Amino acid sequence: QVHLAESGGGLVQPGGSLRLSCVASGSILNINALGWYRQAPGKKRELVAVITDFGSTHYGTPVQGRFTVSRSNDKRMVYLQMNDLKPEDTAVYYCNADVQVGSDLTDYWGQGTQVTVSS
After folding, report:
1. Is residue 102 scored above 90 in pLDDT?
2. CA dihedral (81, 86, 89, 90) positive or negative
3. CA distance 91 to 100
4. For the chain, what percentages of helix, strand and coil (3-state, to nearest 5) are there?
5. Cα–Cα distance between 71 and 104 in angstroms, integer?
6. H/E segment holding residue 98
7. CA torsion, ordered 50, 55, 58, 63, to nearest 10 deg
8. CA 19 → CA 9, 52, 64, 82, 105, distances in Å?
9. What is the pLDDT of residue 30?
10. Would you state the pLDDT for residue 74?
11. Which of 10, 26, 40, 100: disulfide with 91, CB 3.0–4.6 Å?
12. Under 8 Å CB-to-CB from 17, ≥6 apart: which residues?
């Protein structure tokens, strides 16, 4: 079991920045990857960014060049630095952990944090 808790969301003007944080607890040694997804009203949940156990990163096309994902070495924290925010970035942002125990793969999710980009 892995528990995830996000923080750092809020209201920001277009062009502004926010930094989201997520703290992981529980069986963190089994985490393969940590990442961020988002879901806007009426839309499907989409990948924002992911960082693997080896430190490789992958970003969704809409955020490439503007967002940066990072994590602590002990895998207890994952961060999302969001720059040059746009109104279309408005969504609930969810922290995700991809956990492997033996051959079993399980996704864990945080409760989400609201990001609103508006003037």
Report:
1. no
2. positive
3. 28
4. 10, 60, 35
5. 23
6. strand 91-101
7. 70
8. 8, 19, 16, 6, 28
9. 86
10. 86
11. 40
12. 81, 82, 83, 84, 85
